[in-house]
Write a structure and sequence with these properties.
single chain, alpha+beta, Fructose-1,6-Bisphosphatase, Chain A, domain 1, D-Maltodextrin-Binding Protein, domain 2, 2 domains, 10 helices, 12 strands, binds adenosine-3'-5'-diphosphate, binds magnesium ion
């Protein structure tokens, strides 16, 4: 099977990172959230990137990693205590970790996009993480601009599972699986194969500033979806489409940030998870997402993720709105 080693290492690394994030999350005090204290997410974000980059640097030393975080802030003398907290959390999974190692692993994630690279969002949906809602650890391998392997660990996502904690894994040409966070009994999943069912749902961000909720509602309606949206943080939304829980995920540019360009780590893992489950991912103009241009999807605007059947209808509705 293609990319078997990459897949196994990515799963191991992302699950370990998910475990670290959950430990930190359960220790967030309600007061910290009220005060909008971002320290829990900072610790988990840095710890997750450190653990994953440690694994990738050991197993694939020649592969660049394009991660969301860098250690510049953590290296400041006034951050010494925070750094040692991160090292403690990482050390619970990778014994004897030193603060210097943490810094160097995090900075291993400052690579550049090339012919083959990994991209990592150590905590996607930071706002969801702080609200104790959805978040994801998202890791993907990209070759020649195409995502080849994607792993999404969603520790708080339940869908139809008996308990929260879902992992989605996809390899190009080999389908998408979903399992619990023990990785046991992965089940092949498929998008919902209907376009006219009154029960079809669409997903969008909880954060109104990350999209255009009014326009998203209109477009979903034009595509025949009559149900209210399901609002969810992070790339868990891609998992919802891949598993058939939703038929569509719309992320249209917010009127406040019309020129926003999406980040590769916010979409790479999710894209392959949906495509390999039989769905489609493009930008709002129907163009495939181009992961070869750098950390941002500079040639794309907005994101449309569907079960495939609805896709052309959605793009046509968007074109009609702008013409
Ligand atoms: N104006 C904007 N438009 C779209 N996405 C944005 C945005 N500002 C920030 N984001 C991205 O939205 C991501 C969260 O998406 P969602 O709303 O689907 O949970 C953030 O990832 P992080 O949480 O990793 O920083 C961030 O990269
Ligand atoms: Mg993100």
């Amino acid at each position: 099977m293609a990319y078997e080693t990459e897949k196994q290492i990515a799963i191991k690394a992302a699950l370990a990172a998910g475990q670290l994030c959950e430990r930190v999350r359960h220790e967030i005090s309600p007061e910290a959230i009220e005060k909008k204290d971002r320290s829990p997410v900072t610790i988990a974000d840095f710890g997750s990137q450190a653990l994953i980059c440690r694994e990738l640097a050991t197993e694939f030393p020649n592969d660049p990693v394009v991660g969301e975080e860098d250690a510049a802030e953590l290296k400041q003398p006034e951050m010494a205590e925070r750094l040692s907290q991160v090292a403690d959390y990482v050390g619970a999974i990778a014994p004897n970790t030193t603060p210097d190692q943490v810094v160097s692993w995090i900075d291993h994630g400052n690579g550049s996009v090339g012919p083959r690279y990994w991209t990592l969002d150590p905590i996607d949906g930071t706002k969801g993480f702080l609200r104790k809602d959805q978040y994801a650890v998202a890791l993907a391998l990209v070759e020649d601009g195409e995502v080849k392997v994607g792993v999404l660990v969603c520790p708080a996502l339940q869908l139809s599972a008996a308990q929260p904690g879902l992992m989605f894994v996809a390899v190009r040409g080999e389908g998408t699986t979903m399992s619990g966070l023990d990785g046991q009994n992965p089940q092949t999943i498929k998008v919902v194969s209907s376009e006219n069912d009154p029960n079809l749902r669409f997903v969008e961000s909880v954060e109104s500033g990350h999209g255009n909720q009014a326009q998203q509602a209109e477009i979903a309606k034009a595509a025949g979806i009559t149900q209210d949206s399901l609002r969810m943080d992070s790339q868990a939304k891609y998992g919802a489409v891949a598993s058939g829980e939703a038929a569509l995920y719309l992320r249209l540019p917010s009127p406040k940030t019309p020129d926003y360009r999406e980040k590769i780590w916010d979409h790479a893992a999710g894209t392959i998870v949906v495509e390999e489950a039989g769905g489609r991912v493009t930008d709002m103009h129907g163009k495939p997402l181009d992961f070869s241009q750098g950390a941002k999807l500079v040639d794309n605007q907005g994101v449309v993720v569907s079960n495939g059947l609805l896709h052309d209808k959605v793009i046509a509705a968007l074109q009609q709105q702008t013409s």
